[in-house]
Design brief:
About 70% of the residues lie in helices and about 0% in strands. With about 290 residues, it is mainly alpha-helical.
Length: about 290
Amino acid sequence: MADFLPYLIGGLANGALYGLLALGFVLVYRATSVVNFAIGEFLLVGAYLTYTFALFLPLPLAILAALPLAFLFGLLVERGFVRPLLGRNVVAVIMATIGLAAALDGAVQLIWGPDLKYLSGSLPNLGFQAGEVFVSSRAVWNLLLALPLGLGLLWLLRRSRYGILVRAISEREVAALALGIPTARILAGVWGVSALLATLAGALLAVASGVGHNLVFFGLKVFPVAILGGLDSVGGALLAGFLLGALEALSQRYLEPLLPGFTEALPFVVVLLVLLVRPYGLLGERQIERV
């Protein structure tokens, strides 16, 4: 048990970041039906913004300072790249987000360079010992920020007026426009929130591993997480993040020595097995089309 729990807690900490990133991805898809293939680059830009502010601010303040800029960045992406393509063929929108990802990759290297960078300063140490198990400060911070934020966002979508408007737009955008709902402003806000969540995940990841192009590969995990939870389910994204994070960590400890490389493939194997039973994901809504 003393060997099992540290890996499980570390996996849940990684899963918290998966969940944060998947929340932003699912939120955009639910509101606009756009698959944002640039979500990993959103994470990368957010991490570099945090790094820049950390050069002259304490790290907690640097993260807070990066969040409004990230929200503004999301608004600009929606206005400049997504809104002109709404209503077009879905392939055109997908190609636009792929092109956006490539453009952001190049812009990041042009501005900050290709070298791995490390954040100056650190977050307050919240690590503690529970019996024979040590819970790291990183794990506490990840869980402390991701879980309340995810639950709060879930409540916001289900109970608040803003959440009701987002759901109305996702169901019938034309009808929402006819009712006078400011769809353009609300959808821009959704992209802003998505960029904000990606920035927070990127900042927490950068605290542990530094800032570099390697963060984009972490962003690729959002796709199996979002599909596993259900592309239209915010709660499912959070649940799937924790689940895949825990499974990855336990696989790294117990299966990797026997099956080298299996841990990298594990998220996609789990998604495939679950989709065979539940094609709409763990918490996704079952959609029935009558013809």
